[in-house]
Amino acid sequence: MSLTREQFAQQIVDAGRFLYGRGWSPATSSNYSTRLSPSEALLTVSGKHKGQLGLDDVLATDLSGNSLEPGKKPSAETLLHTQLYSWRPEIGAVLHTHSVNATVLSRLTPEDFIEFEDYELQKAFSGVSTHESRVRVPIFDNDQDIARLAAKVQPWLDAHPDCVGYLIRGHGLYTWGAQMNDALRQIEAFEFLFECELKTRSVMNRQG
Ligand SMILES: CSCCC(=O)C(=O)COP(=O)(O)O
Ligand SMILES: [Zn+2]
């Protein structure tokens, strides 16, 4: 049974409180969405403090990123959400966060990806059933032109149907799930793994 619009909005409000509380969505950064129907998404309004969202701080868009609610300003990154709903019909929620670790790790990595291997927590990602796997997370250079950025993300998604998330360098993380709880679980897994990677690199650098 599908949720009502108000219940979806409440999921977004609750996600904001949780992610702000963990320090992963400081100030007005980040944006969140849920799928409302096969052809519509419910997204955060642009510029809102994500720890203080109200039920009215969301708006419906079509999957081309067009607002269906004149008078409300859609997130600047709407297209990065709607492209994911268009890419995979089973995606029901998308979360974008701005944690310190995602920002630092993406800036420290000269390659255009990071890879997790041999971590038990990889199994928190949808479709991953063993630590004996490699989870590759692409890093796209930041771009204020979101349509141009989305056009760079799309070929990666098309070539990697098992992708569980991506980083934008110096900016943040995008991940998703069948439902809001799945997307939240993936955010937690990513944040754990980002911290492990940074700590490992720090120790290895000190060892020379
Ligand atoms: C202050 S963060 C800059 C914009 C951004 O990256 C973000 O995630 C929030 O943008 P929105 O338009 O969704 O508020
Ligand atoms: Zn952002």
From TrEMBL:
<dbReference type="GO" id="GO:0046570">
    <property type="term" value="F:methylthioribulose 1-phosphate dehydratase activity"/>
</dbReference>
<feature type="binding site">
    <location>
        <position position="98"/>
    </location>
    <ligand>
        <name>Zn(2+)</name>
    </ligand>
</feature>
<comment type="pathway">
    <text>Amino-acid biosynthesis; L-methionine biosynthesis via salvage pathway; L-methionine from S-methyl-5-thio-alpha-D-ribose 1-phosphate: step 2/6.</text>
</comment>
<dbReference type="InterPro" id="IPR017714">
    <property type="entry name" value="MethylthioRu-1-P_deHdtase_MtnB"/>
</dbReference>
<feature type="domain" description="Class II aldolase/adducin N-terminal">
    <location>
        <begin position="10"/>
        <end position="198"/>
    </location>
</feature>
<dbReference type="Pfam" id="PF00596">
    <property type="entry name" value="Aldolase_II"/>
</dbReference>
<feature type="binding site">
    <location>
        <position position="96"/>
    </location>
    <ligand>
        <name>Zn(2+)</name>
    </ligand>
</feature>
<protein>
    <recommendedName>
        <fullName>Methylthioribulose-1-phosphate dehydratase</fullName>
        <ecNumber>4.2.1.109</ecNumber>
    </recommendedName>
</protein>
<dbReference type="InterPro" id="IPR036409">
    <property type="entry name" value="Aldolase_II/adducin_N_sf"/>
</dbReference>
<comment type="similarity">
    <text>Belongs to the aldolase class II family. MtnB subfamily.</text>
</comment>
<keyword id="KW-0028">Amino-acid biosynthesis</keyword>
<dbReference type="InterPro" id="IPR001303">
    <property type="entry name" value="Aldolase_II/adducin_N"/>
</dbReference>
<comment type="function">
    <text>Catalyzes the dehydration of methylthioribulose-1-phosphate (MTRu-1-P) into 2,3-diketo-5-methylthiopentyl-1-phosphate (DK-MTP-1-P).</text>
</comment>
<keyword id="KW-0479">Metal-binding</keyword>
<keyword id="KW-0456">Lyase</keyword>
<keyword id="KW-0862">Zinc</keyword>
<keyword id="KW-0486">Methionine biosynthesis</keyword>
